[in-house]
Design goal:
This protein has 14 helices and no strands. It is mostly helical and 335 residues long. It has two domains: 34 residues, no CATH class; 274 residues, no CATH class. It is globular, with a radius of gyration of 23 Å. The chain starts with 9 loop residues before the first helix and ends with a helix. 42% of the residues are buried.
């Protein structure tokens, strides 16, 4: 520390720097400081892991909810509904919890919020919903395995990350696990599913791009405040893209199952998951966040087993082992 930065009584200043020097030269003090920093880092990584696992558990049950809602709502319009409700929730939480001095708005903030909201909320939601509408569940599940690969590719291109043998092995194992668990032999990019398959691939690419581009922005600003504005701008993009659907809306079956699917899809699978992913992005690397996506098919199958619809078999157990090993090797050892 520069002595010119410490002002006050000369004797006090002298004693301050003597104590500082004594602390740094005391036997074992440096190691102690390093251990404290290591504990803090592991604690942060542990919270990020918990947040990312929570996201995948929520998404693992979301395919059912999304299919129920999309049977009655146009996909892009429903994406706009998800985004605007999430924006309102985020603004309410931000005004309640984020200090006023952290709720700053300027041209640069608004430009970045619009850009990242358009990509990560607007386009990503539109492509996700359109993909679900126009392709099969098998195709969508297999193609979604591209998200972590796109994320790692974009991170390498941007110079934000390097491909290490450990990371490469982890991603490879997880990819094979995702393919095996979803029966790759059932994958069929026919003319009937081609449009939906392309939308699903674009969904993966835009989410990966959002992970890379928005990280510094989210680290600089309060996550609730930043996400609120991104959801708002994303909703604008989605509603503009679905103007033609406004005249085709029909009365909805407001039964318990449909209402639960709507609430689950909006609150948990949109607001909560986007916030947790964005919060985790401020603490770990984008590829670390993305690799957890490979847990989704395993969690979805566990749900199927619990409901008694399907019994576990050797193929599925092998696939789940590959996925968990891949996530562990590629991400958990080091962020």
């Amino acid at each position: 520390m520069d002595r010119s930065l410490v002002t006050g009584n000369p004797l006090t200043v002298k004693l301050f720097f003597q104590e500082k020097d004594n602390l740094l030269t005391r036997p074992g003090s440096i190691d102690k400081l390093r251990r404290m920093q290591s504990i803090k880092t592991k604690s942060t990584d542990g919270l990020a892991v918990a947040a990312l696992i929570t996201v995948q558990v929520i998404f693992g049950f979301n395919y059912w909810a999304a299919k129920v809602v999309l049977a009655h709502y146009p996909p892009v319009f429903w994406g706009g509904v998800r985004a605007i409700v999430s924006a309102i929730l985020m603004f309410l939480v931000a005004f309640a919890l984020v200090p006023k001095e952290q709720r700053k708005i300027d041209r640069k903030f608004l430009f970045q919020a619009f850009l990242y909201g358009a990509i990560g909320i607007g386009l990503n939601n539109a492509f996700f919903m359109l993909g679900l509408r126009y392709t099969t569940t098998t195709n969508a599940a297999i193609l979604n395995a591209l998200t972590p690969l796109f994320t790692l590719l974009f991170a390498v291109i941007a110079g934000a990350e390097k491909v290490t043998p450990q990371k490469g092995l982890g991603f490879t194992l997880a990819v094979f696990g995702a393919i095996v668990i979803r029966r790759f032999e059932d994958f069929s990019m026919t003319s009937d599913t081609f449009r939906g398959d392309i939308y699903t691939i674009l969904n993966c690419a835009t989410l990966a791009l959002f992970f890379i581009l928005s990280r510094d922005f989210l680290k600089k600003h309060a996550p609730f405040w930043a996400m609120a504005w991104m959801f708002l701008f994303g909703a604008v993009v989605l509603f503009v893209g679905s103007i033609s659907d406004f005249g085709n809306l029909q009365a909805l079956p407001m039964n318990g199952s449909f209402v639960f699917a709507m609430v689950y899809n909006v609150v948990l699978a949109t607001a909560v998951t986007y916030f947790l992913n964005s919060w985790a992005l401020t603490r770990v690397k984008p590829s670390f966040v993305a690799v957890f996506i490979y847990l989704q098919p395993a969690i979805a199958l566990i749900n199927v087993w619990m409901s008694g619809e399907e019994a576990p078999n050797a193929r599925v157990l092998l696939a789940m082992a590959l996925i968990f090993a891949g996530v562990g090797i590629g991400a958990l050892k080091k962020a």
